[in-house]
Amino acid sequence: MRRITPLFSILTFVLLSLSVAFAQEQVLRIATASSGQSSFHFNVLVAGADQQNWSTLLFMPPMYFDADLQLQPGIFQSWEGNEDSTVWTFTMDPRAKWSDGSSMTAQQVVDSWQIQIAPVNSVGRINGYLGNVAGFGAAREGAGADDLSVSVSGLEALDDATVRVTLASPDPAFNWRVATAHLSTANAADVLEHGYNEYWKPENDPVFSGPFVLSAFDENLQTAELVPNPNWWRDEGPFLDKVTFQFVPDSQIIGAMVLNDQIDASLAPIPSALRGQVPDYFRPIQVIGFNTFWFSPIAPPTDDINVRRALILSVDWNAVFRATFPFEGTGVPTTQPMDDVLNCWDPALTGYPFDVEAAEAALAASSYGSAENLPKLRVTPRGNNEFNNRALQAAMEFWRQNLGIENIEFQERPDGFGDDIDKLNLTRDDVVIRFPDGATYMFTAGHSDGAVARPGNPLDGYVNEDLDALIDEALTLSPDDPRRCELTRQAQDFYINDYVMAHFGKPIATINARDYVENYIKGPDISLIEPWKISINR
């Protein structure tokens, strides 16, 4: 017995070690919040909102940009434009299939996009992705009030494997435009049977194309559970056995959950004061777009350009930046509407000057003449994000001190204004494009047909014909053509001189996950990149 005891002990230790290793739970626990109203859902067709953070767990995008901003295949394995970039042809990956084992087809991609185009579904950002497709406008104008889908002449499936898109005008970057989780394919049959807002719920037995399927969703408890797709079609993963979600709208609570080891990751930030306790959670990542304040061009008193000019020039935006990002490494200054990761960013710009005298003169020249004559200013950061709130509170104090404006109503969320929600003068949002092209960014931010200026959005009613003409021309040029950026910068100058947007600094985006969550990567599309590779290694 004495001889075999050491051997027995060694074998026991090895077996126990192996059992612990194999028993390590591959469960990813995620908390998520909302930047505005609660939007905890799994409807991939919304083309925005908070679900964009997690949509790639369930749906594979057409293509996607990786963390190095390199274009990668998704459902489409190849793409090609014709000589003048008016016709684009996309070829399906022959492996692509739904979670029930059936093959994905080109017609299903077309059908899914046509659902997003239907006006009744209110996909506000669809114009920026597919608005240039031939027949887009006619399909929307001819749609019935209850039509869940439309027929767009420029979208067609040539066969089961080939999607052809015909554009109304040349777009050399159209392949970039559709490389987004916002255009992921849902099964149109599911949508038409169960409805746009209900098709994805587990009780309706939906199909998914991503590495996981939605196995449970509790609308009352705001929880969800994902499990591996039984017919996952890529050659790797998924490695997780389960993903759990809990909707937690308070960043302080999310921070406490991180410290208490109740979650492994969050799709919303935690207070920056916790950087010293969980530094791995704050590892920087690169995304496109940053939060800014937009002034309504149609709601009094900001419908007057001189009021907008006064509000912007009366603020020391460098001081606002320091107040917004008091902790080192949490933000970088911004000098213009365009993001500094974009190909057309202008290094010569320094931002709006702090000029109280000019601000006072602008207010005096306005149709109101003085602060006392201004109607109430209604402002909102659209959520409880610490950076946005600090920036807006700091700007409001400058308005009080330098212009004597006291009649300001602040609400954390737009619905706090009740029936006065349509009278908002300032709201917060970012310019949502998901690929590094300045011309597209400025189209989204300032073009009269862009997302931000469309009805119901922050710049509803904004039109600058000179800006529109410059961007229209820029978008027809190749991303490699220097003229594309030259025109884009000229358009940005018009935008700056209209005083509709104030930028207070760019938060340094963070991974928001513990370092033992391996291959947890987020990039320019906000969504998780290649989530089938994620694993837990404590």
CA-to-CA gap between the ends?
37 Å
Structural class: alpha+beta
The helical percent reads: 25-40%
Low-confidence stretches: 1-22
Main sheet characteristics? 5 strands, mixed
Per CATH, which architecture of the largest domain? Roll
Shape: globular
From the 3D structure, determine the CATH topology of the largest domain: Dipeptide-binding Protein, domain 3
So how many helices? Answer: 14
The tally of domains stands at: 3
CATH superfamily of the largest domain: Dipeptide-binding Protein, Domain 3
Give the spatial strand order of the biggest sheet.
8-9-10-1-11
Q: Calculate the mean pLDDT score and round it.
A: 90
Rounded to an integer, what's the Rg over CA atoms?
25 Å
Number of strands: 22
CATH class of the largest domain: Alpha Beta
DSSP strand content: 15-25%
